[in-house]
Write the structure tokens for this entry.
Amino acid sequence: MLGKLDQYLQFNQTALSLRSSRQEVLASNIANADTPNYKARDFDFTSALNGAMASSTAAAAVGNSTGAGAAAADSGTTAMPALSYRAPAQGAVDGNTVDMDVERNQFADNSIRYEAGLNAITGQIKNMLAAIQAAP
């Protein structure tokens, strides 16, 4: 039964975990805006989410929710996706590739999407509670 609940919440849980990881990467870029030779990094959220969902689905199928594989599949941990360097829009004398306008926009966009993910998972939990309360 818990496996079905985990599957129900898995997509939003994975998405929130990846959004959190991306927020850390973007915050690191902003914090290092004045560091000489720092290279701005990021990852493609869509491909990271697709990869995480595919790997968790494969792990759940192999574990079949009864063995050690099930514990790994249900642990809720999402590995940090591979980071890539962002191409600089404008070169800097000190070799730093952080563009504060781009970083602020990406940070704000990711924050809004994280909040939307929280609202989605909150809605799922409310729906489950309503179903439980409505059951005879």
Residues 65-75 have pLDDT under 50 and may be disordered. The helical segments are 2-31, 45-63, 68-73, 100-134. The chain has one domain: 2-134. Residues 2-134 form one domain.
